[in-house]
Every structure is written in structure tokens, then in C-alpha cells.
Amino acid sequence: MRPHTPNPGSDSFDDDDYPAYTMGRAAEMTGTTAGFLRALGDQGLITPLRSEGGHRRFSRYQLRIAMRARDLVDQGTPVEAACRIVILEDQLEEALRINEQLRHDAGDPKPTADT
């Protein structure tokens, strides 16, 4: 979802976006299969970076997203729908964050349940 932008001077292993994990390790860490991770990529949920040899590499951020999709699939949601749900949840969270920031910048009070 979000591209990796190197952070000069930071430790790569502290960087959530650093593509540190191979396909096999990513599948092991998420309790899924390589095929499942490829399906998430096919649906546009995650886009792993490629090593110089062309192998997929995943970041911790991408693995957290994969786990969210896996949890939905484990509950019986089809992979395609799980990917769409995760994408929409993230878009809603970002829209709410932007709305809150705009309200704050405009000096408006936080909306209540009555409004």
C-alpha cells in the first residue's frame, strides 16, 4: 500500500517499511502460505519489493496488513473481500484523521455523538 522510502541514518531493522523478509519467512511469520501472500499482492493489498534476483521481500508493515487479511479469511471471508475490507478500513481511518486535523486547524471543537 505504501511504498518504501529509505530513511537515511536509521537502522533498517527498526524501519517498519524495510523489506527484510523473504517469501518463506513472511509466510511463516504470518501463519499463511506463499500462495496466500501472492494472492494479497494480486489483489493490490500489498506490493512486496523485489530483490536484485527478483525475489519478493516483505516489510513488517506489509506483514501486519497480511495478518489483518488472514484474520478475515479465517473467519470465512473470501480473500478478495478481505483485501477490499482492509483497504476500505485504512481509507476510512485516514479520512477520519484528515477530518480531525482539518477541524483542529479550523478551531472547531471535536464533533459529538449528537452532531
TrEMBL record:
Top-level taxonomic group: Bacteria
Segments forming domain HTH merR-type: 20-88
Classification via CDD domains: HTH_MerR-like
UniProt name for this protein: Helix-turn-helix domain-containing protein
Gene source species: Kitasatospora herbaricolor
UniProt xrefs under PROSITE patterns: HTH_MERR_2
Region named Disordered: 1-20
